[in-house]
TrEMBL record:
Residues 45-470 form the Amidohydrolase domain. GO terms for molecular function: hydrolase activity, acting on carbon-nitrogen (but not peptide) bonds. It comes from the Bacteria. It comes from Amycolatopsis xylanica. InterPro entries: Amidohydro_3, Metal-dep_hydrolase_composite, Metal_Hydrolase, Metallo-dep_Hydrolases_sf. Pfam families: Amidohydro_3. This is Dihydroorotase.
């Protein structure tokens, strides 16, 4: 049974089309786009006049691996949520378990550089749960440089994960910032040979840590230029902070010179990580111009009082989730830096969505609305809606067509080479995947805050994944699990 969306403002960032039209979905694909389309017998006709119809948002950077978290992302307009910065390991089991549990949204994973190194350097093996790079963030044993034998061993693990369907290699370099630059180059060489992209949380900038082996953003530029690999710079806003203007100029220069470096940003001045992360060590915080009080524990809500308490918490539970405030959104100058990262030419919107935690330690619920007392980072629920509110409605920096190019089209194109199935995503022409969002352009906005972080965004009226409705008339369809796997096919 097909669906006909009648009379909406249709946006296709692939062709540049922006106009009032009908869209017919059938067999998981866009079957027709035009005016006064006929509705074959059995077709569900939905009046979407006054609403914007576009390809669903493709999130390259989501650490959400639950129905609960994906539903928050669905309310934000996301149809494909991929964990590519940290990745999961082993990849085959990650895909199998997601398929068995069911997902509202499409899903996929990169090969986890952090977990591969943890296995070889520290003997930390995957347990009954899927391990991601995030699971080992606070453990210092894997953060050292590798011997030649160790390097070969964990590169071999990554190569095997790519062969198993990983969508590239996720590199948490910022969590092992003193490792030899030659190791990063070796990963880029592997990626180039495999025809797979990398997704990197870069190491410290030279302004922040003059002792860093190499400036983090310059490192990714150099590796991409030397190897020809496609290399994605994750959350440039958070890793660059007050130095984002310098970093963006370097990235612009590199791209004009032919380097295959892409970049993403999210519209928040605070990030989320584990309390044991290397860059939260008190001395390193001071280098960034931050204090212990810039850190807020996610589950307890405790704002850390001083460096002694920070050290204590890092020792007690290095993996405990926390929030790090790196830019003050209330300060006009710092807010301008944040918007500069979003406005950068071809900058992709990506959420860095985090798991939802409940006081009993669980990270899953199939109930909707979500049970009370859940906590996460507000970007899990609001990244795309907030970006649209800020950059289209308030600042007028993006047109609606440009917004969909950055939220849907450009992120899908990062995956074209490694996953040919991605070529049907991020577009709204005949034959494209029927992953669509229908939103109210006057009402779309985020509602989640740092203290009330699981409040869903508003303004998404309909959401289709593979042609199956997940949201209808603004309401979540709790029995809808149409999400399918997006897998890599390395050459």
């Amino acid at each position: 049974m097909g669906t006909l969306l009648r009379g909406g403002r249709v946006l296709d960032p692939a062709t540049g089309f922006d106009g009032v039209a009908d869209v017919r979905l059938d067999g998981g694909k866009v079957a027709a786009v035009g005016t006064d389309l006929a509705a074959p017998p059995g077709t569900v006709v939905i009046d979407v006049s006054g609403l914007v119809v576009g390809p669903g948002f493709v999130d390259l950077h989501s650490h959400v691996h639950s129905i609960a978290g994906q539903r928050l992302q669905a309310m934000d307009g996301v149809t494909t949520a991929l964990d590519l910065e940290a990745g999961l390991m082993p990849i085959e089991r990650a895909y199998a378990e997601a398929a068995a549990a069911g997902r509202p949204l499409n899903y996929g994973f990169s090969a986890s550089w952090g977990t591969a190194r943890a296995q070889v350097l520290a003997g930390i093996m995957p347990d009954a749960q899927i391990d991601s790079g995030l699971d080992v963030l606070g453990n210092p044993r894997w953060q050292r440089s590798s011997s030649p034998k160790e390097l070969a061993a964990w590169l071999s693990l990554l190569e095997g994960e790519l062969a198993g369907g990983a969508l590239g290699i996720g590199i948490l370099m910022g969590y092992a910032p003193l490792t030899e630059p030659a190791e990063f180059l070796a990963v880029a060489q592997l990626a180039a040979r495999a025809g797979a992209p990398t997704f990197t949380h870069v190491r410290e900038l030279i302004e922040v840590d003059p002792a860093t082996p190499i400036d983090g953003s310059e490192e990714i530029i150099a590796a991409a230029g030397e190897t020809g690999a496609a290399m994605h710079h994750c959350h440039v806003n958070s890793t660059s902070g007050h130095h984002v203007e310098r970093v963006l100029k370097s990235l612009d220069r590199a791209r004009r010179e032919g380097s295959r470096v892409t970049v993403e940003a999210y519209p928040y001045g605070a990030g989320s990580t584990a309390i044991g992360a290397a860059f939260l060590e008190p001395d390193r915080l001071r280098m960034k111009g931050l204090r212990a009080s810039s850190v807020l524990m996610l589950e307890s809500g405790e704002r850390i009082a001083d460096e002694a308490r920070l050290r204590e918490l890092r020792g007690l539970d290095p993996g405990a989730p926390c929030i790090l405030e790196f830019l003050d959104e209330r300060d006009p100058r710092e807010n301008a830096l944040l918007r500069q990262a979003l406005a950068f030419p071809d900058s992709i919107v990506a959420s860095d969505a985090m798991p939802v935690y409940w006081p009993d330690g669980s990270q899953e619920s199939t109930k909707w609305p979500l049970p009370p007392r859940g906590t996460t980072h507000p970007r899990t629920a609001g990244t795309f809606s907030k970006a649209l509110r800020l950059m289209v409605r308030e600042a007028g920096v993006w047109t609606w067509l440009e917004a969909f190019r950055r939220c849907s089209y450009l992120p899908a194109r990062v995956l074209d080479d490694v996953a040919p199935a991605a070529r049907g995503k991020g577009r709204l022409d005949v034959g494209a995947d029927a992953d669509l969002v229908v939103l109210d352009p006057a009402k779309i906005t985020d509602t989640a805050t740092y203290t009330d972080s699981t409040r869903p965004s508003v303004g998404v009226r309909h959401l289709f994944v593979g042609g199956v409705p997940v949201i209808s008339q603004g309401e979540m369809l709790v029995d809808a699990y149409p999400g399918s796997a997006l897998r890599g096919e390395p050459r």
